[in-house]
UniProtKB/TrEMBL annotation:
Organism classification: Bacteria, Pseudomonadati, Pseudomonadota, Gammaproteobacteria, Lysobacterales
Signal peptide span: none
Keyword RNA-binding listed: no
Name of this protein: protein-glutamate methylesterase
InterPro entries in the record: CheB_C, Sig_transdc_resp-reg_Me-estase
Protein's UniProt keywords contain Transmembrane helix: no
GO cellular component: cytoplasm
Organism per entry: Luteibacter yeojuensis
Length: 190
């Protein structure tokens, strides 16, 4: 029996995130019928290059989000440098230059919080490795709204602070290794 599909997936990562995202994004099957939105902490002052970096590893199309872009199923969108990525409604994204969160823009909390508001219990949030507490408030928002949260096991993470902080602050529906996370994603059959 396959798991019910989430209506949207949000992923947050920081230090060590490139390698973790390489594994996780490679697990999404072609035809995955939900949008996948990603914040990886990146420098604000230069192009990210993330879509090109992940394009070959992912069965889904990968792009950088733009302001007012449509929220498309089966597409991976990365937050661009120096902008927070937000879910405006069930069909539209927004970019924001609001203040940095814990020194990061893009930050994970604004994405998770805005997506939780829009998708409620239809949201799957995945928090990976990182060296700040960004993501903790977002995880709390997702859980408050009935969404599902999977957090990378801090013991496995390259940088354990981010997953450990979120677990201590808000808990998780599952604390997973990357291998287990990929197995769980494999339960979503298009």
């Amino acid at each position: 029996m396959s798991a019910p599909f989430p209506q949207a997936v949000v992923i947050g990562a920081s230090a060590g995130g490139i390698q973790a995202l390489r594994e996780v994004l490679g697990c999404f099957p072609a035809g995955f019928p939900a949008p996948v939105l990603v914040v990886q902490h990146i420098p604000r002052d230069r192009p990210s290059g993330l879509p090109a970096l992940f394009d070959e590893d992912c069965a889904l199309p990968v792009a950088e989000a733009t302001d007012k872009a449509p929220l498309c199923p089966g597409v991976v969108l990365f937050a661009p440098p120096d902008y927070h990525l937000l879910v405006e409604d069930r069909t539209t994204l927004a970019l924001s230059r609001d203040d940095a969160v814990l020194f990061s823009r893009p930050a994970i909390d604004p994405l998770f919080e805005s997506a939780a508001e829009v998708f409620g219990d239809g949201l799957l949030a995945i928090l990976l490795t990182g060296a700040s507490a960004d993501g903790s408030e977002g995880v709390a928002a997702v859980r408050r709204e009935g969404g599902t949260v999977w957090i990378q096991d801090p013991e496995e993470a390259t940088a354990s602070l981010m997953p450990a902080s979120a677990i201590a602050h808000a808990g998780a529906d599952a604390i997973v290794t990357l291998r287990d996370l990929c197995r769980r994603l494999g339960c979503f059959h298009p």
